[in-house]
Amino acid sequence: MENPRPSALTSYIEASKPTDVLAQESHHHALAAQVLHNLQYQHDWSQLQIHTQSPESGKTLPKPLVSGLPPQRIYVHPDEQIEMLKLNVQEKDVASEREWVLPTHLRETWSLRRFAEVFDAINQVPPALDHAAGEKHYTRRGGIGSRRGGQRVLLATVGDDSTVVYYIVHDGIVKPRQN
Q1: From the first residue on, what is the mean pLDDT of each consecutive set of 10 residues in the chain (179 residues)?
Q2: DSSP string spanning the chain?
């Protein structure tokens, strides 16, 4: 009996795995590739990239991170939300921003120290891809659309059944949104 063909996700992870990494790093890279695949094919993100080196210092990151451009804004700072209401600007009218994504597994234990190591290693905004050099982190109207609120990552938690859940994690305290 012939073995079944690997799934598209398994094939993608195997094809994206670097050959010069240790077994532990390979697991982290496979997790990052799985999250990248989910963002690209389930959530329509573009300009996705896996980062293993800090753009800030060039040192190896604590874990591989993914960066990319979501189809719409992930987070609106409370001060920006007030400005948008005053100017009658809809969230869909504001440009999306490149985001950092931190791939994790549900069984991983995270501490404030581990999050701090990640935040210390990254810039506030991920670097643009080479082919996206013309990409702008721009404002569309009256100061709206520029990044606010300090550093943040989108925590991508992968479950044993391959379900991916996303949470916004800020470096520090951010005042809550107005409803």
Answers
A1: 72 62 69 95 94 86 93 79 78 81 95 92 77 40 50 93 93 73
A2: -PPPPPPHHHHHHHHH--TT--HHHHHHHHHHHHHHHHHHHHS--EEEEEEEE-TTT-PEEEEEEEEEE-SS-S---HHHHHHHHHHT--GGGSPP--EEEEEEETT----HHHHHHHHHHS-SSPPPPGGGTT-----SBTTBTS--SS-EEEEEEE-TTS-EEEEEEESS--PPPP-
Say what the pTM is. Answer: 0.75
- Can you read off the two tokens belonging to residue 176? 């809550």
Beta-bridge partner residues of 141: 144
